[in-house]
Amino acid sequence: MGTHYQGTQLEKNALEVYIKLSRAAETVETQVNCHLKNYGLTWSQFGVLEALFHLGPLHQQELAAKILKSRGNLTLVVDNLVKRGLVTRERDESDRRYVTICLTGAGRQLISDIFPRHVRQVVDTIGVLSPEEQQLLAALCRKLGLAQQ
């Protein structure tokens, strides 16, 4: 279903693209991340584990920026991961406001187990597009994202 807005052609075109982009992104994200419920993880929790797995310990502010979450939202996500023993918080000795989030051994093991399946989900989901279409979509998404900064 497209837009029923009766504006200019430019407005209707932009709304059509926005609707299709939003629906496609939601569908792809749901398909790619559906396996996370088997591990009792939310998308945000997985994002934290994945970022720490690939980038190493990160300050909470850096981590929030990496996974596109507010610091307040990230605090709750990290609280829940700490309760499960998957990450720890380490305070900087010289500035106690500065908190670094680190994977625990259990967190590293869990993300190591999950990530290969996650990659397969991404490849299978995005695989409906040819390699050329994937490159074009990536370039268009990058252009759109960079134009908003």
H/I helix tally:
6
Low-pLDDT sequence parts: none
Given helix and strand content, the structural type is mainly alpha
Major β-sheet profile: 3 strands, antiparallel
**Percentage of residues in DSSP E strands:** 5-15%
Write down the CATH class.
Answer: Mainly Alpha
CATH topology type? Arc Repressor Mutant, subunit A
Total domains: 1
Terminal Cα span: 30 Å
| Beta strand count | 3
CATH-scheme architecture: Orthogonal Bundle
Mean pLDDT equals: 91
Radius of gyration based on Cα positions = 19 Å
Largest sheet strand order:
1-3-2
H/E element sequence: HHEHHEEHH
Shape by Cα distribution: globular
**Estimated helix fraction:** 55-70%
Give the CATH H-level superfamily: Winged helix-like DNA-binding domain superfamily/Winged helix DNA-binding domain
Describe this structure in words.
It is built from six helices and three strands. It is 65% helix and 8% strand. It has one domain (39-147): Arc Repressor Mutant, subunit A (Orthogonal Bundle). The chain has helices at 9-33, 43-55, 60-66, 71-83, 105-126, 131-147; strands spanning 58-59, 87-91, 99-103. Helix 2 packs across helix 5 and helix 3 crosses helix 4 (71-83). The protein has 149 residues and is mainly alpha-helical. It is globular.
